[in-house]
Amino acid sequence: MKTQASEWHWLDARETVAADELCRSCQVSMGDLQELVEYGSLQPIAGRQELVFSAEWVVPLREAFRLRRVFDLDLFAAGLVLEYLNRIETLERQVKTLRAHLPSHLPPGQDHHEGPAPWREPHSGNR
Q1: Alpha carbons 78 and 34: distance in angstroms, whole number
Q2: Are 71 and 63 in contact (CB under 8 A)?
Q3: 10 Å Cβ neighbour count for 22?
Q4: Which of 10, 23, 74, 108 could disulfide-pair with 58, CB 3.0 to 4.6 Å?
């Protein structure tokens, strides 16, 4: 199956998507889309008269509404899922950025430790 040229442009966060296009591509009604904006779960691009969104919303909105259908969620719960998906994506980007700043001479998993130190029995024979 070939991907239409308009679909792959949406994955670029610099691209914009009109509200009606976002509704069609994510199988969301205009009423639901506007309600998500009112909840604050979906933010349109500021300074525009019409509702226009960053293309980065396409993937998480599709996933949130897929989960809504699978788990029979109400719109408010789908909005929370959308917010969490967006937050997860932001945190994953931050982790990748931080990993890129690690010294290149350190192989992954050596000479640095992520997370807390392993717990050891205080009175064990291994000191």
Answers
A1: 13
A2: no
A3: 24
A4: 10
Q: What is the pLDDT of residues 37-96, one digit of tens each?
A: 999 999 999 988 899 999 989 999 999 999 999 999 999 999 999 999 999 998 999 999
Share of the chain above pLDDT 70, in %: 80
Cα separation, 54 vs 89, whole angstroms: 15
List of domains in the chain:
5-95 (1.10.1660.10)
CA nearest neighbour of 57 among 11, 9, 8: 11
Please give the angle made by the CA atoms of 73, 76 and 16, to the nearest 5 degrees.
105
Which of 52, 55, 46, 59 minimizes the C-alpha distance to 33?
52
- Start-end of H helices in the chain: 5-9, 19-26, 30-39, 58-71, 75-100
Amino acid identity for residue 94 in this structure: Q
